[in-house]
Amino acid sequence: MNQLSFDNVYVYRMCVMECAMEDETGCARERPFMSSSRKCFADQVIRNPCNALARGYMTNSDLEKAIKAFHGRCGHISRTYSIGRSVLGVPLWVMEISNNPGKEEAKPAFKYIGNVHGDEPVGRELLILLANWLCDNYKKDPLATLIVDNVHLHILPSMNPDGYSMRSRGNANNIDLNRDFPDQFFPMNNDVDERQPETKAIMSWIKKTHFTASASLHGGALVANYPWDGTQDKSKNYYACPDDEAFRYMAKLYSGSHFNMSRSNEFDSGITNGAYWYPIYGGMQDWNYIFGGCFELTLEISDNKWPPANELQMIWNYNKRSMLDLVASVVKSGVHGRIVSSDCGEPLPASIVIKDINYTIKASERLADYHRLLAPGQQYEVTAMMPGYKTRSTTIIMRDKPVTLDFVLEPDITQADSFLPSRCNNRGNLNILEAISNPHLQISLTLVLILAFLCFLMKRKAIVNHFKVRKTIGQRRVSAV
């Protein structure tokens, strides 16, 4: 990489630091030591230094090649797919890493998203490194093996490839994608036609895939951010979501494994509540939790939004353990299980409720597995409920290991609208249809039918011949008389 002059690098870093945290007006939310000014001059002043620094980063074409190369090398534990396209038509490629990629299993799913803001490219570089590290260390490193065998990890290195190409925060329509989701407090972004294609792709993806937890990677600070990201009155105050303790646990897990995030002088333990730091609205983090049933963190992984490429390896080393530990937390903590009916033993997509926590998650539709993140060190009352069935509750104590808790729900015969018999019958019919749709079984059934038909013809011919003989004999007897 060509080296820039010291002055250019200094100007670039000062500008990026000042424009590191952008508010809803599009201007920078400055670092504390630069609070005397609020200038967004990066594009105007240092266009050439920015482009020069980007030479060590992957282009969008390089990124696509890297994703395909990863799959070509690690196809036994991966698959690649696109969830949609950007404004300019660039595919939004995802890598899934699992010992059974693409297969629906009773395992938690986790997703990482990078490059939400086009001028924050470090995440896309680190996510490619993460994928390749897991491939190289599967069956060699215990943590890599734990993740691949027990989690479906989905990695979207770049949510905003157009913004990256233009070196801009927003997408090709100059829209901040982290302000483009429906908001819980204010009626914004509710018009589907007005949403950006990248936002639509993420929302559709989350509705199709039952994610337990996730994180998006950003730049401009060094902190693990958790919900809520906004407040009802737009004030800058700590505003806790129902699972505040679980989110604090997740954030501290990431920060504590980081080389220096937890040593932050700006953020206590290297974590922060989003609304306490600065409120935003229409963010992806809160939308995931409210509408997707997914516990998401916003991770600021580099003080410098666009550091020189020769610093990427160091940043990867600082974040690697944290990234791995966060994924592994969905199986190393919390309560997990399946829910089935008592009479026919079929999976039930019931709801899981924790007493005194106003947040409900649902078991998956097909396998009825659930994965509920909870902070350790406490006692919880867990309840499974579903219309047409009797509610069941039990108490668990979360320590430093996960708890497995299965539920068997009995039909509630007092409910006149109970749909248990029809569900079991429909399930049986579904199993029959699935069996019949098996190609091997179809061939076998065809052969059996052909053989049965041939046997019928042969038997029919034998019967006809038999009666002909009997008729002939009878005629002879008559004539003999």
TrEMBL record:
Where are the bilayer-spanning segments? 441-458
Q: Which GO terms describe its biological process?
A: peptide metabolic process; protein processing
Q: Where is the signal peptide?
A: none
Q: Which Gene3D superfamilies match?
A: Carboxypeptidase-like, regulatory domain, Zn peptidases
Q: Which residues form the Peptidase M14 domain?
A: 56-330
User: InterPro entries, from UniProt?
Assistant: CarboxyPept-like_regulatory, CARBOXYPEPT_ZN_1, CARBOXYPEPT_ZN_2, Peptidase_M14, Peptidase_M14_domain
Q: Where is the active site?
A: 300 (proton donor/acceptor)
SMART domains found in the cross-reference section = Zn_pept (SM00631)
**SUPFAM superfamilies the UniProt entry points to:** Carboxypeptidase regulatory domain-like, Zn-dependent exopeptidases
One GO molecular-function entry: metallocarboxypeptidase activity
Sorted UniProt keywords = Carboxypeptidase, Glycoprotein, Hydrolase, Membrane, Metal-binding, Protease, Transmembrane, Transmembrane helix, Zinc
Cellular component annotations (GO), alphabetically ordered: extracellular space
Spell out the PANTHER family in the cross-references: CARBOXYPEPTIDASE D, B, PROTEASE M14 CARBOXYPEPTIDASE
The Swiss-Prot or TrEMBL record describes its family as follows: Belongs to the peptidase M14 family.
Provide the protein name.
Carboxypeptidase D
According to its UniProt entry, this protein's organism is Artemisia annua (Sweet wormwood)
